[in-house]
Amino acid sequence: MNKGILHFEVGETVDLFLLVKHASKGIASNGKPFLTLNLQDQSGEIEAKIWDASDDDEKNYAPQSIVKVIGDIHNYRGKNQLKIKQIRPAGPADNVKLSDFLETAPLSQEEMAAKLTQYIFEMKNPNIQRITRHLIKKNQQAFLNFPAATKNHHEFVSGLAYHVVSMLDLAKVIADLYPSLDKDLLYAGVILHDMGKVLELSGPVSTVYTVEGNLLGHITIMVTEIGKAADELGITGEEVLILQHLVLSHHGKAEWGSPKPPLIKEAEILHYIDNLDAKMNMLDRALDRVKPGEFSERVFALDNRSFYKPTFHN
User: Which ranges constitute the DSSP H helices of 154-237?
Assistant: First the structure.
């Protein structure tokens, strides 16, 4: 097994097949076009540039293409970058396939589906249970496949379901500590809060925002979906409104994208659980590639901080 792109040190030479995750074109100060590539394997991703890029380069190195790269790892503004010496598109003779390069959740889809089923089974309120089950069923395949985001946290295949089952386990422990919390609401809020991402995002590979994602966003999409599900199931109780509120408020503040702040106890807790799980995932990923006694790269979504790994950590 070759070591992953994230495990190369500054100054080391890389000779690897990598997947183009994103590609964007820019114009350098000398007026010549260049390409910025995000290249990935199962360990994660790294940025690289192709200077004086031609139209052919743009075609050859489009997202979802596999490339053979030789280059060196450099540090640029506190982040590792790959300086390309040679690059070419992979061909049939190279015997590489897309799935070789995709980072995936640490749990299998079957395990995650079983956990979701178990949590829905535990719900006592029939209206909440039926709406949640209906929406899971409607979106099951995408829900188990999609990432939770295009960047920052859980941006890997099955990241969305992994984020949700991690949050459900957290919700269970918190609800056991604070029995006044309504478990049904909390579990349903966790399962539904990001489900709109199956329509907001394009899919598990080279993920981009869809037109609906750009114009509406996953929160608005999901509020509508909950309303539709309730209509289809003939449910009219207050639960519908509360579930919509949980989704609407889970980002916590207007400046973080929530149309409403949490105004229900379970909505407040949902926001913290979501935040905690996302941050833990970002921290684990940032510190995973750091030796004890060193600082991580800056983590943009955590106020651009570099985190230190203590020397006595295992």
Answer: 159-177, 183-192, 197-200, 211-215, 217-233
Q: Please, which pLDDT band fits residue 134 given cuts at 50, 70 and 90?
A: very high
Nearby residues of 278 by Cβ (< 8 Å), 6 or more positions away: 148, 152, 153, 154, 163
Backbone angles phi, psi at 222, to 5 degrees: -75, -35
3-state class (DSSP) for residue 22: strand
Which residue bears the tokens 């509360």? 242
On whether the CB atoms of residues 184 and 128 are closer than 8 A, the answer is yes
Our separate counts of H helices and E strands in the chain read 10, 5
Q: Is 299 helix (H, G, I), strand (E, B) or coil?
A: strand
Tell me which DSSP letter residue 35 carries.
E
Note the pLDDT tens digit of each residue in 79-116.
889 999 999 999 889 888 887 888 888 899 999 999 99
How far is Cα 311 from Cα 308, in angstroms, rounded to an integer? Answer: 9
Report d(CA 129, CA 33) in Å as an integer: 54
- The CA distance from 281 to 313, in Å, is 18
Helices 265-288, 238-249: axis angle to 10 degrees equals 40
Tell me the pLDDT band of 222, cut-offs 50, 70 and 90. Answer: very high
Residue 42: predicted pLDDT: 82
Distance CA 157, CA 295 (A): 27
**245-279 pLDDT, tens per residue?**
999 998 777 677 678 899 999 999 999 999 999 99
Side-chain half-sphere exposure of 9, counting CA atoms within 13 A = 4
Alpha carbons 119 and 59: distance in angstroms, whole number: 46
Residues in the chain: 314
